[in-house]
Amino acid sequence: MSDGTCAHLGAITTVRHAQRRECAECVKLGAPWVHLRTCQECGATLCCDSSPNRHASKHARSSGHAVVASAEPGEQWLYCYPDDLFAEY
C-alpha cells in the first residue's frame, strides 16, 4: 500500500473501517469533532487534529499505534504518525 518508505504503512494488509461515525472520546465529553480517523491497530475511531481535542493523535502517542485511516466517506487513505506519511488505498 505504501511506496516502501514506511514500515508502518507497509504492514497494513487489511484496512479497518469505523464501526460508528463518532469520536468515542468526544462523545464522553460532549465535545464536537471535525473529521474522524480509525486506528489500524485497535479499531478505535477518534477525532482528527483539526478537531479541538485531537483524540486520534493523542491515542497514537499514548498507545504507540502508528497508523490511522480516514473514516470520512469517499476518502481512502492511511496516515502514519511517526513517519508523517500518507498512502492511498
* Residue fraction in strands: 15-25%
CATH C-level name: Alpha Beta
Shape: globular
Secondary-structure element sequence? HHEEHEEE
Task: Give the helix level as a range of percent.
Answer: 10-25%
CATH superfamily grouping: Zinc/RING finger domain, C3HC4 (zinc finger)
Distance between the termini: 6 Å
DSSP strand tally: 5
- Strand order across the biggest sheet? 2-1-3-4-5
Computed Rg: 12 Å
User: What is the name of the CATH topology?
Assistant: Herpes Virus-1
Number of domains: 1
Structural class assignment: alpha+beta
Q: Please work out how many helical segments DSSP would assign.
A: 3
Main sheet: strands, sense, barrel: 5 strands, antiparallel
Task: Outline the fold blueprint.
Blueprint: H1 7-10, H2 24-29, E1 36-39, E2 45-47, H3 55-63, E3 67-70, E4 77-80, E5 85-88
Antiparallel strand pairs: 1-2, 1-3, 3-4, 4-5
Structure write-up:
This protein is an alpha+beta fold and 89 residues long. Helix content is 21%, strand content 21%. It is built from three helices and five strands, in the order H-H-E-E-H-E-E-E. A five-stranded antiparallel beta sheet has the order 2-1-3-4-5. The radius of gyration is 12 Å and the shape is globular. The model has no long low-confidence stretch (mean pLDDT 95).
